[in-house]
Specification:
2% helix, mainly beta, 2 domains, seven-stranded mixed sheet, cytoplasm, elongated, Immunoglobulin-like, golgi apparatus
Length: 300
Amino acid sequence: MNYLIGAFKSPCHFSINFVDGRTRKQVQLKKENGQTAMVPLFRSQESIVGEVVLEPIQGKKVEHTGVKIELLGQIELYLDRGNFYDFTSLVRELDVPGDIYEKKTYPFEFSTVEMPYETYNGVNVRLRYILKVTISRSYVSNIVECQDFVVRNFTPPPSINNSIKMEVGIEDCLHIEFEYNKSKYHLKDVIIGKIYFLLVRIKIKNMELEIRRRESTGSGANTYVETETLAKFELMDGAPVRGESIPVRLFLSPYELTPTYRNTNNKFSVKYYMNLVLVDEEDRRYFKQQEIIIYRPESS
């Protein structure tokens, strides 16, 4: 039985190393098993340079029909788990068919790689970048090793960033106006605004501001939408009176936000909303929702 188990073990040790691995910024990446790992951070148009080290287990040789490394950008929809949609696919051949008897090092380079989309781990979708090394073999299964890395792309501040002014009400019962200082926010920004009560004939118990993320995958009849409430911020506790105004100051930095993604590779979108919720003394809820744009600044 031990011989059988040993037959399925990889005959060599693998490592995929980045040439600037010691100096490049590392960020946390959530793995499929729920655990996190520290991986290198890149941005679009950077070069990815490194080496692959293969070392046969003592006393074994590795017969192969070629060694290659691929740089892959993939989207996986969890409702179609196991099927990956490659939007980036680059290949470098590292070795011709032959035998490996001792430790071998293969340098590789992918120059100024276009990586247009950010790494994303959502509820129903995952976008990832990997380096995938394959040792092809004739009569037994190929040996494959993968190394994840993260891509984040920066957006300059918007040249136009209009404030948000809206009204909400119930005829002859409730009339409020809310105003936010802008409609586009960076990941570490602060939402600043004011809520004005123009007419109050309902006994309001409290008021909250929520940040919601809406993830849409698929298209047409096969569109799946998942909404998460990422933040709840109590603005008021108790009944307001006509003419009263409530200030709003909500810091975004404590929350795990991503930029807004619109129709990424025709596979998914991620949008953010501010949801103003009022609750009366009979626990009836009144709310008004407004989309905001989130972007990643150079400093994040």
